Amino acid sequence: MLNEKMEAALNKQINAELYSSYVYLAMAAHFHGLNLEGFANWMRIQAQEENMHAMKIFDFIYERGGNVRLMALEAPPNEWDSPLDAFQQSYEHERKISGMIDELVNLALDIKDHATWNFLQWFVAEQVEEEDNANRVVENLKLIGDNSAGLFMLDRELAQRQPEAEAGEDGGGE
Ligand SMILES: [Fe+2]
Ligand SMILES: [Fe+2]
Questions:
Q1: CA 140 to ligand 1 center in whole angstroms
Q2: Which residue ranges make up each domain of the chain?
Q3: What is the DSSP letter of 77?
Q4: How far is the CA of 43 from the centre of ligand 2 (A)?
Q5: Which ligand is nearest to the Cα of residue 56, counting in written order?
Q6: Distance, CA 96 to ligand 1 centroid (Å)?
Q7: Centre of ligand 1 from the C-alpha of residue 82, in Å
Q8: Among the bound ligands, the one closest to the CA of 96
Q9: Ligand 2 centroid vs 128 CA: distance in angstroms?
């Protein structure tokens, strides 16, 4: 059974993951508008992944006999000054999400909820990857600076990103 406080916190995290998806979708739209289709592809796939994160928590709440309560989504920003600005904001956003996951882990420890603690470890590892992915593009964009040939090449590279394979039948561990 899910503790009430944990249920509320997990529901809040569903909202945060869906908001992340919304932010990345807004960034995808922004990049489509700039004809940077590779950047847009990267953002669309990221938006799908965030949606999967939300669904992972959704499924877990039900598995533990809790209830999902969906909340209003905040409108995402729609404008960024440059590709670097968008990716820097992505990176900062992921750091914020990592902090939220850490808080959930702290709560699980406080109330000795080992099942949720164990469930959250997937997210702890995922956030390491998410921060690294965003930061790597930030660093590339810093190197590129105002060089449009470099931007074009990075766009081609980001076009290669593929959606992650669906999780196995246990629903975790991709
Ligand atoms: Fe996420
Ligand atoms: Fe994320």
A1: 22
A2: 4-73+80-158
A3: P
A4: 11
A5: 1
A6: 11
A7: 23
A8: 2
A9: 10
What fold does the segment set 4-73+80-158 form as a domain?
Ferritin (1.20.1260)
| Cα of 54 from ligand 2 centre, angstroms | 10
Query: Which residues surround the ion ligand 2 when the cut-off is CB under 5 Å?
Result: 130
Whole-number Å distance between alpha carbons of 69 and 80: 32
Please give the Cα distance from 91 to 135 (Å, whole number).
Answer: 6
Relative orientation angle of helices 114-144 and 148-158, to the nearest 10 degrees: 150
Reduced 3-state DSSP string for 49-71 = HHHHHHHHHHHHHHHCCCCCCCC
Share of the chain above pLDDT 90, in %: 93
Q: What is the pLDDT of residues 156-166, one digit of tens each?
A: 999 999 998 76
Mean residue pLDDT of the chain comes to: 95
pLDDT tens track for 30-79: 999 999 999 999 999 999 999 999 999 999 999 999 999 999 999 999 99
Closest CA to 93 of 47, 61, 57, 59: 47
Counting ligands in written order, which one lies closest to the CA of residue 16? 1
pLDDT, position 166? 61
